[in-house]
Amino acid sequence: MSHTAHIPSHRKPRRSASKLALRAGVAGGVLSTIAVAGAAGPAIADPVTETIEMPTLTSGLSTTVAQSAEATQQVALDLELQAQENAAAAKAAKVAKKAKAEAVREAEAKEKAEAKERAEAEAKERASRDTERTTLSGYSAGSDSSADSSSSAPATGSAASVVAFLKAQLGDAYVMGATGPNSWDCSSLVQAAFRTVGVDLPRVSQDQSLAGTQVGTSNLQVGDILYWGGAGSAYHTGVYIGDGQYLDAANPGKGVVIQDLSGYPASGAVRVL
Questions:
Q1: What is the pLDDT of residue 149?
Q2: Do the beta carbons of residue 114 and residue 232 sit within 8 Å?
Q3: In 3D, which of 100, 122, 245 has the Cα closest to residue 175?
Q4: Is residue 164 a part of any domain in this protein?
Q5: Where residue 166 sits, what CATH number does that domain have?
Q6: Cα–Cα distance list, 217 to 55, 95, 203, 260, 268 (Å)
Q7: For residue 258, what is the enclosing H or E element?
Q8: Strand partners, 238
Q9: Does residue 202 have a cis peptide bond before it, meaning omega lies within 30 degrees of 0?
Q10: Can you give the residue range of the structural domain that contains 170?
Q11: Which residues contact 251 (CB under 8 A, 6 or more apart)?
């Protein structure tokens, strides 16, 4: 036996043919793949050079979103403001309606009170006239004859002007407290008639019965102021126009009329012309 028989050999083991063939095939496949990729590389690479500007798109989108949010907020504010305005308008209309209704109620109440006051005053005046008429009925015949025998000559000068004014008001309404031009009470008509000739008389019957000179009803002249009731407390006045007649704003039922003294004799008379 050789002295080297037990020493391992340093030779590399011989590869088998099958393994070599396998490795050769793998290597060939890899080289083929590289070759194909190399050949196809230039045709695929061209489109890659076109880039998409993503930052610009993203910035524009952000601006649009912000504007949309701002517009939405503005719409919400506008709707809220409109709702507030509508509520305020509705409240104001309600207050105005209530105030109008209250004003109407107050006006109606005032009108009723005034109507009642006028009716009471007229009733009181009628009652006073009736009382005075009853009191004077005992000597009415004498008064009537005196009046008839008073001056029947046509009025001239200031007296004629007074009578002309009074006759121009015939048919006007009687309204307590009225002073013309289409409605009067007794004393306002007398006052207005004498004002046309420059005579300034007091406003009320009581004071007119004290104006000028007291004359008896048996010596009347055209233009004398007649009064019913006591001097200083008279409740009615008129003007003597001759022929036993006088003109006055009688009452709401008659208005401004010409009447006979025989039907309602006067208590007294004053002369201012």
A1: 38
A2: no
A3: 122
A4: yes
A5: 3.90.1720.10
A6: 121, 64, 23, 13, 6
A7: strand 256-260
A8: 226
A9: no
A10: 142-271
A11: 122, 125, 126, 174
pLDDT higher than threshold 70 for residue 143: no
Amino acid present at 220: L
Bridge partners (DSSP) of residue 226 are 238, 269
Model pLDDT, residue 135: 42
Over residues 12-29, the pLDDT tens digits come to 555 554 554 445 454 555
DSSP 8-state secondary structure symbol assigned to residue 264 = S
What pLDDT is attached to residue 23? 54
Residue 148, domain member (yes or no): yes
Q: Are 212 and 178 in contact (CB under 8 A)?
A: no
In this structure, the strands spanning 173-174 and 183-184 are parallel
Spatial contact of 220 and 170, defined as CB atoms under 8 Å apart: no
pTM for the model stands at 0.47
Share of the chain above pLDDT 90, in %: 44
Q: Determine which of 100-104, 148-152, 234-238 has the lowest per-residue pLDDT on average.
A: 148-152
Q: Sorting pLDDT into bands at 50, 70 and 90, what band is 215?
A: very high
Q: Is 264 within the bounds of a domain?
A: yes
Tokens 């000559």 belong to residue = 153
Residue 40, in any domain of the structure: no
How many domains does the chain divide into?
Answer: 1
Structure-token pair, residue 128: 């006073």
Packed helices 157-168 and 186-195: angle between N→C axes, nearest 10 degrees: 130
Burial of 9 (0-12, 13-18, 19+ CB in 10 A): exposed
